[in-house]
Amino acid sequence: MNSRLSDRITVSQLNSFHNELQLKRKRYYLIWASILSLFLWGIVGVTLTLGFAPNALALEYNKEILVGADFSGRDLTDSSFTKANLRQSNFSHTNLSGVSFFAANLESANLEGSDLRNATLDSARLIKTNLTNAILEGAFAANTKFDGAIIDGADFTDVLLRPDEQKKLCKVAKGTNPTTGRETRDTLFCP
């Protein structure tokens, strides 16, 4: 009789031990499933965040040949296009504030409605460039060539220009900038 009683206790203990082991396994799997789930949601969150990040990352296109490139509607704040060939490129309605176009070739480029505040345009070629309704406020444009440029509604407030280029621009200046409300002739101090 004693041996049967000890067998029952052992079986009961084994069942209890087995139940505890199953509970521990379930907890273990739940913990790892939670960790994996958090990890996957983290990856999804980072992917969505980077996927919807603004385009305002300063880029360098120095000395690049980008003839006919389309940059329209982008945010290129503080990017650099120093000595780049951008002939016939499209920068319409682009945020170009703080951009460097030092010695860049922008011949026949489209900069309509672009924001060029505080941009460096020194020694750039803006020959036959469309600057309709562009904002050039505070841009540095010494030694810039504007021959044949379309400047209807462009805002040249506080732009550093050579006197001979200023006179050329005054001959064709007309219109009012729709964003700033300033008349092109007034921003160029035309007589």
Provide a compact summary of the structure.
This protein is mainly α and about 190 residues long. It has helices at about 1-50, 165-170, 185. About 35% of the residues lie in helices and about 0% in strands.
How does this structure look, described?
- The chain crosses the membrane at residues 29-53.
- It comes from Nostoc paludosum FACHB-159.
- Keywords: Membrane, Transmembrane, Transmembrane helix.
- By secondary structure, the chain is mainly α.
- The protein has 2 domains: 1-53; 55-191, E3 ubiquitin-protein ligase SopA (Pectate Lyase C-like, 3 Solenoid), CATH 2.160.20.80.
- 34% of the residues lie in helices and 0% in strands.
- It has 3 helices and no strands.
- It has helices at 2-51, 163-172, 184-187.
- The mean pLDDT is 88.
The CATH architecture term of the largest domain is 3 Solenoid
Helix percentage range? 25-40%
The overall average pLDDT, rounded, is: 88
Outline type: rod-shaped
Write the layout of secondary structure elements.
Blueprint: H1 2-51, H2 163-172, H3 184-187
Name the features.
about 190 residues, Pectate Lyase C-like, mainly alpha, single chain, 5peptide_repeat, 2 domains
